[in-house]
Amino acid sequence: EIVLTQSPATLSLSPGERATLSCRASQSVSSYLAWYQQKPGQAPRLLIYDASNRATGIPARFSGSGSGTDFTLTIDSLEPEDFAVYYCQHRSNWPPTFGQGTRLEIK
Amino acid sequence: EVQLVESGGGLVQPGGSLRLSCAASGFTFSSKWMHWVRQAPGKGLVWVSRINSDGSSTQYADSVKGRFTISRDNAKNTLYLQMNSLRAEDTAVYYCAAPPYSSVWFPDCWGQGTLVTVSS
Question: Which of B37, B75, B68, B36 is nearest to B54 (CA)?
């Protein structure tokens, strides 16, 4: 099973700042990686898939990059609604796994 | 509007059974793989199972293999998860998920979740 490690565990930033979230895989997942946002009491929301493709309806301030074992989710100019937990997920083999999450909180 | 609505969760004793349902609308259900993902209280996301579009192929997490069965009724646009021999560690919110607009393994449509609590 591929292990995804996200860092940092918690990121404290202010609205308007840029957020950079990291996801590292225990072995190569090629570009088969996605990012999700989850707010309390809500289902996950797909942001990015195949490492860099924005999902339908996702604002352009969200972008993804990386391949192999190292991936980054960047959120430019944070909006108040962006403060949430973010998960990465691979689909390189079965089972797909998620990282443990990065909590993005308001500073 | 693309929508998934789960039902069937609740409180069950260890060793008991439950069947979850997920009603889909707003997309061509019969052409899409479907997934179940769970989240224990305060914890992260875990893939439980997946089924291909015609139901001929399924996969399960090791933790539920032999106890859970995923199935679908394309005529009713409904996904199911039959859960038997339930354990305390199966306590979680169960989400069904589908990829109407994204790729198969990265679902962009999720239900609201249904809570399963296994406790005596």
Answer: B75
